[in-house]
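Feature request disguised as a bug: please show the residue count (264) next to Maleylpyruvate isomerase family mycothiol-dependent enzyme in the output. Example input:
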Amino acid sequence: MSTLTHERYCQEILAQTEALRGVLASGAALGTRVPTCPEWTLDELLRHTGGALRWSAELVRTRAAEDIPEEKVPRSAGPAEQTATALADWLDDSGRRLAEALREAGPEAPVWTWAWRQDAGFWARRMTHELAVHRADATLAAGLDYQVDPEVAADALDEWLEIVGFAQRTQPGDEAGELRGAGRSIHLHATDAPEGLDAEWLITFHEDGFTWERAHGKATVALRGPLTALLLAFYRRRTPDSGGLEVLGDRELLDFWLARASFG
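Example output, currently without the count:
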C-alpha cells in the first residue's frame, strides 16, 4: 500500500527530474558507462528514463485500457540533438507531462498497468521510484553523492517488496519463486531514520513464498545501516558491505535473496 499521497508523488516526479538535470549540468560525459547498469551509457540510461516517463504519461493521459507500444508515444526516444542541454530539457518536459497527467487523472482513474493495481495511482508511485533508482544510477556514474528523501526511500522499499511478491505469485519462471522455505527470515534496519518514520522491515520465508511487514524482530540475517544505503543494496545498486551497512547473521541467505529478488 502506498504511504505517500498522490500529490506527493507528483511533486517527487518533478523534483527527481530536476535532480537529473543537475547530474547533466555536472559535466559528466554522455558516453560515460553506468556501473550499475553496465549495458548502458549515461545517455542511454537517461533516454530510457525519459521514455518511461512519456510512456506512462501517455497511458494515464489516454486512460489506456491496454498497453501502448513505446514507438507510438511521441518523442519517446529523446531529442535528436546529442547534447546534455537538449537531454535535460527533454527530461524536464517528460516529467512535467507525467505530473500533469497524473494530477488531472487523480489516483483512482482506471488505467492499464502490468501489476496488481489498475489505476493512475500505481503509475504515480512506480515512476517516482523508477526515477529515484535511475537517478542513483546516473548520480553514481557521474561520481556524485546520492541521497533520497527518507519517506521516499522507505516507500520504495515497500514497493520493491510488493513487486517481488507479485512476481513470485504471477510469474512461475521468475527466480523470485525460489524465495521460500520456512524457518528463515531477513531483517532490514535503517539506523538513521528520522523520528516518526518506521524504517524496519521483517521478511519471513514460508513453504509457499514469503511475507513481509514493517517491524522489528530477530531474524536469520539482518542488514542494518543508513536508509539510502539500504535502498541501494536492496535494489542491487551497491553491495551489502558498502555505504556503512552491516550484515549480521547468515550472509548466504541475504545473498540468496538479492540474487533472486527481481521481476520480469
